[in-house]
Amino acid sequence: MTATHRTGTPTQTTAPKAASEWSLLRRFYDGWVRPWRAALLLSLVLVPLVAICGVLQPKLLGQAIDRALTHADGLELGGLALAVLAVVVLEYLLGALQVYLATRVGYDGVAALRRDVFKNVLGQRSAFFDRHPTGQLLSRTTSDLEALGESLSLGAVGIVTDLVRLVAVVGTMLWLSPRLTLVAFAVLPLVLWIVDRFRRRLRELSTAIRQRMGELNGFLQEHLGGVELVQQNGAERRTRADFDRLSGATLETFRRWNLYDALLYATMDGVTGICIGLVVGYGGGLVATLVITPGLLIAFVEYTQRALVPIRELSGKYATLQQSFSALERIFGLLDTIAVPDTGAALRPNERPSGRIAFRDVRFTYPGTERLAADGVTLDIAPGQVVAIVGSTGAGKTTLGRLLTRTYDGYTGSITLDGHEVRDLDAAWLRAHVVSVPQDVYLFRGSLRFNVTMGDETLSESAIESALDLVGLREAVAALPGGLDGDVGERGSRLSVGQAQLVALARAMCRRPAVLLLDEATASVDGATDALIQQALQRIFAATTVLVVAHRLSTIRRANLIVVVEAGRIVERGTHEELLAGGGRYAALLEAQEASLMAPSAPE
Fold first, then answer.
1. Under 8 Å between Cβ of 451 and 492
2. How far does Cα 550 stand from its chain's mean position?
3. pLDDT (mean) for 564-570
């Protein structure tokens, strides 16, 4: 069932209890393996053929021994030896083909599942990423999925193979000697009980391993991404200690899993020896009384080993399969985290919006909090107008833009774009016309062209050049090694802070937005770079409707309307001159900013 915050934001949908193994396998098959069912079916058809080859070998070997003891001629013994060789070769050829098909189906299914997982994560809203650290998502889309390929295909299909082999061997043993078969498997109930107990514990530990690995990956991703900050604050020792703690907990869980796995195999080896001893002890008496032949006894020893191997392998494959089940539970839990769906008709108007925006008594609370981030906001923005939102940190300035782009849903009241309620608009269409430039600029490793176009091959060269000209980046591009096709480095490391911000602006303007949401942050750049950015903003302001969270005085003064926000409410609105003359909250903010700019810097 989908949980809902009081603002209406859906959250993760999860099953109330752990899913059964069968349901996990069935869902994986129905969703991602079915397209390759022909190869899977052929793999399963080969299973009984491999099993028949397996049960023929001890029978032929026993016949050869009995013929040798009765002084059969060499031609007959040679024929039996060739028959054994032929059956062995056929078993290995058919077995190799069966394993290849099963493995291929598993990897193809996992590849399809990986695509769907990434698609699902990519479609989530910001509230989802607030709850799920990047490292944990990385763990689920990499290590969890890697655990599925070979282990799930060979595990699930391998279990079927082992069961068929076990049935074939036991059936043959019952046909040859029911009494000796009962002796051979006298301890079977105890074996099955042991396997079941170990299976349950191994699954619990497998789930714990996945959780530990997710925490460890999250820690590594976070601290490697912020390694400079760690070094600058002298936090290396604490970071190493935290890593050692997480790594130690993960290692301890692996050790416990390995202990149970080793004990399981050791137990099965001991049981195998006991069963063979019972067969030899009881069967030897039958040979002495001429009830069975020596060849049949030797064949029975081989059959006993062959029967216990599937049981032992079954337990080992169960241990491996538990990791797959744990991984599937985590992955399906991620897939069941449903992105906020489009409501209403999911409108995609044919016309390009003019940029007229209206907020009417909008209220919104972020998931997991109680304080209103938007509290009765009412605001009209005309096409082509530049509206600056100012206020203290945490006042709710950025919230209005997030609601307008449906980065977060669940507001009450009304937000319209050209008269269309945004919650009724298709999210992809909305974001194609209402483009956001966040405060933290993010550049991908690759060419400058990719970072401007985001891989959109429909953008023409003229559109790219126009965007570069608009933000004043043409000369800087020409000076870069490789120009527009040059590599910007890891997260844009080969660009200055100012150039990266201009690239982010060019990226937005390439899409010719009807509305630009701009969280302007230029405090960290030098004066010359800031001047270039301000010139770019001036040209952008003349080209589109702009809703800007303003930090710089120069940006605020150029706005057609200034809105002052405090505690999610609009407390003042007007032009720069009007608000300054009013001597209210805006004037106080402006005075504080000017005082901070005029404060003497610390001596070097």
1. yes
2. 36
3. 88
Helix axes of 134-141 and 188-225: crossing angle, nearest 10 degrees: 130
Expressed in percent and rounded to 5, the helix, strand and coil fractions of the chain are 65, 10, 25
In sequence order, which ranges of 480-584 are alpha helices (DSSP H)?
497-509, 527-541, 553-557, 576-582
Kindly report, residue by residue over 164-190, the tens digit of the pLDDT: 888 888 888 888 888 888 887 787 787
Regarding pTM above 0.90, the answer is: no
DSSP, residue by residue, 132-178: S-HHHHHHHHTHHHHTTHHHHIIIIIHHHHHHHHHHHHHHHHHHH-H
Domains with residue ranges and CATH for the chain: 21-335 (1.20.1560.10), 357-598 (3.40.50.300)
Tokens of 47: 């299973």
Q: DSSP label at 487?
A: B
User: Which stretch, 58-72, 333-347, 522-536, 556-570, has highest mean pLDDT?
Assistant: 556-570
DSSP symbol at 216: H
Residues 356-392 have pLDDT tens digits of 999 999 999 887 788 888 888 899 989 888 898 988 8
d(CA 170, CA 146): 35
- Rounded CA-CA distance 116/1 in Å is 21
Q: Are 140 and 330 in contact (CB under 8 A)?
A: yes
Residue 591: strand, helix, or coil: helix
Instruction: Say yes or no to pLDDT of 12 above 50.
Output: no
- Tell me how crowded residue 226 is: count the other CB atoms within 10 A of its CB: 14
Asked whether the beta carbons of 63 and 295 are under 8 A apart, the reply is yes
